[in-house]
Design a protein that fits this description.
The protein is α/β, with parallel strands linked by helices. It has one domain (2-260): Carbon-nitrogen hydrolase (Nitrilase/N-carbamoyl-D-aminoacid amidohydrolase, 4-Layer Sandwich), CATH 3.60.110. The protein is 25% helix and 27% strand. The relative contact order is 0.17.
């Protein structure tokens, strides 16, 4: 078994403060035995608008946020799925919401760019989001080798699109990392249901790391970061505020579950 952690934060606009909080949570998770930790979406900076992020956009392989993730991973000897950070894309007026994976030597070993952009109106809270105005979507499916097995990565709104998770399963995914910043309204309605559904239907572990608290101008995120096993059981959960959920990836349990309940082999339709 391998221990993993889903880090939860309530990030703001002070990058240095956010990084200090992030490092503190990673240190404690590593102290408790976590070999891999997933950070929430926008862990280093969560402002009032996606436009606020553009000045902090980095080139892949160079920049203070990437240096931070590399340094902490190597210092703690832990794998880190780095939430999302803003990286350059093809459109110079926009940025990619990129989740970079660093191994325990501080080397970048994987990248996933958020594909599904959050362009919605939330009537209950009178909030409007238009991520596509400033974020360039990715077009890849990411599954990499890791200490927890084949690791897939998705980000926040991706959670509502099960075909992406099926595509990861088709590439061998056993564990899925999900950095997120679910709103309080959509989180209360759907977060746990969706996280557990993606675990159950794919017979996969899901490490769901959410922002959880109050942010700039009263914005509220849901929290309830959790680790869910292939049967849909919640192994651990953090309700609100800084902290983490921690639990074990048990590959024997997953192998037995997939063998005894072989719904992945019973599929009649395949995603293109």
């Amino acid at each position: 078994m391998t221990k993993v952690a889903a880090i939860q934060l309530a990030s703001g606009t002070n990058i240095n403060a956010n990084l200090l909080a992030t490092e503190k949570m990673l240190e404690e998770a590593a102290r408790q035995g976590a070999k891999l930790a997933v950070l929430p979406e926008s862990f280093a900076f969560l402002g009032n608008s996606c436009k606020d992020v553009l000045p902090f956009r980095e080139t892949q392989g160079d920049g203070p946020l990437q240096q931070f993730l590399s340094r902490v991973a190597a210092r703690l000897g832990i794998w880190i799925v780095g939430g999302t950070i803003p990286l350059e894309g093809d459109d110079q007026s926009k940025w990619r919401a990129s989740s970079l994976v660093f191994n325990d030597r501080g080397q970048e070993v994987g990248r996933y760019d958020k594909r599904h952009l959050f362009d919605v109106n939330i009537v209950e809270s009178a909030e409007t989001f238009n991520e596509s105005n400033t974020i360039e979507p990715g077009d890849s499916v990411t599954v990499i080798d890791s200490p927890v097995g084949k690791l897939g990565v998705a980000v926040c709104y991706d959670l509502r699109f099960p075909e992406l998770f099926r595509a990861m399963i088709d590439k061998g995914a056993e564990v899925i990392a999900l950095p997120a910043a679910f709103t309080a309204v959509t989180g209360r309605a759907h977060w746990e249901t969706l996280v557990r559904a993606r675990a159950i239907e794919n017979l996969a572990y899901v490490i769901a790391a959410d922002q959880g608290g109050f942010h700039v101008k009263g914005r509220e995120t849901h929290g309830h970061s959790m680790i869910v096993d292939p049967w849909g059981s919640v192994l651990d959960k953090r309700d609100k505020g800084n902290g983490f959920a921690i639990g074990n990836i048990n590959h024997d349990f997953q192998t037995n579950t997939r063998r005894n309940f072989p719904c992945l082999q019973h599929r009649q339709l395949k995603c293109n």
